[in-house]
Amino acid sequence: MQSNVVQQFSSFIEDWVPEEASIAIASGDKYITYIPGRHDIHISQGQLIPSGSITERVYMQKSRVESLVDKSVFGTSYYGVGYPLEDADSGLSGALTVILPPEYSIAIQKPLSFIVGKSDELWIPIAVERIIYIESNQKKTIIYTDDDCFTSKYPLKTLELRLSDSFIRIHRSYIVNIAYIKQFSRDIASNLEVTLKEPRGASLPISQSYVQSVRGILGF
Fold first, then answer.
1. How far is 63 from 96, CA to CA, in rounded Å?
2. Does the chain have fewer CB atoms within 10 Å around its N or its C terminus?
């Protein structure tokens, strides 16, 4: 009976969680089911529940737990959301944990108001409304404002998660502040591009993989 309950839980969760998520179901002091996703922390069936894991915290608190877990627990950091499981009919008493990439902890935080950028040997806080666009170039993140440019220690992927809806990703190398967009047009090869208000006449390409997303967000 317990295996049937676990199978039902697994099928249901697989349909609803993101593809990158893994699912771990524990009963007693062991994991009884593990369904790996793209973010795989390699739990084995029958593996003992380690100290510091989301599962252990669910057991201790007897409630839903949501937290970032560092790599000291499983060798890979993850963001976990755990739920207690109790089923009198099957005798199941345990926990279900949805295991997500650690970036999910960033995604749920409030949008940034400032980004600290480096210019020469100075670190300067930049109000996000001053930012025109952000570029990734040769493994460096460059922030452009109306009068200067700065480097940031954060990759574009991290900043994309922390910036408000006033910013839009248009390319693997560019995030743009919508307030500084002057117009959209096509280049001589009929590829979509964006022209910025500042610097005057500057334009950036919109890659094919982001065209539908940009059109959907801005409605054109």
1. 11
2. C
